[in-house]
Amino acid sequence: GNCRTIGSAGSTLLHKAAAEGNKAVVEYLVDKAGLDIEMKNGKKATPLMLAASKGDLDTVKSLIDRGADITAMDEVGLPVVYHAMTGTQVSVNSGDNEETKKYANGKKTKAYKVLNLLLDELDKEWDKGDKTVETAIKKGFQATGASYGTSLLHYAAKGCSQEILSKIIRISSK
After folding, report:
1. Is residue 6 helix, strand or coil?
2. Which of 6, 40, 89, 105 is most buried by a 10 A CB count?
3. What whole-number distance in Å separates Cα of residue 143 and Cα of residue 6?
4. What does the pLDDT look like over 140-167, one tens digit per residue?
């Protein structure tokens, strides 16, 4: 189904709900209103990419359960897993107050959970022999997005948990 765009980025209500982590609205728009779960905005981002970059595990799970493509790529060729990784890049400065530090660390923790889920999903699909997954993994691990300037592997080495980094290395070496 189609839905009018809102804002200048070509986003729809589904994009907005996913970006805000509003799982109930996402589910309504997909299940009841029949909106296309793969609808891309002006930057060719899908609702799954937006929910992943937000670090919203429940919305990401819901979109995946409804068939969202975990191998989709945006306008510059960055896959969903890359969008999830960008959510982990939250800075905490020594001068920040405790509330700010707590918020930033909570945001990182949520982003790691989403990244972990996406890596598990990609790993399962790779094992099934899906070539689009192989492409998404290779692009995600090697991509250097213009606005981010670093690869997924670099992000992981910079600040991820050992578990995430090990998973990325294991998957990329298949």
Report:
1. strand
2. 40
3. 29
4. 665 544 444 566 666 666 656 667 767 7
Count of beta carbons in the 10 Å neighbourhood of residue 33: 12
Q: How far apart are CA 8 and CA 158, in angstroms?
A: 33
What CA–CA distance (Å, rounded) separates 165 from 161? 6
Backbone dihedral angles phi then psi of residue 99, each to the nearest 5 degrees: -65, -40
Distance CA 3, CA 108 (A): 32
**pLDDT per position as a tens digit, 56-86:** 999 999 999 999 999 888 888 888 888 887 7
Round the CA-based radius of gyration of the chain to a whole number and report it. Answer: 16
Give CA–CA dist 8/152, Å, rounded: 28
Determine phi and psi for 114, rounding to 5 degrees: -65, -45
- Letter for the amino acid at 138? K
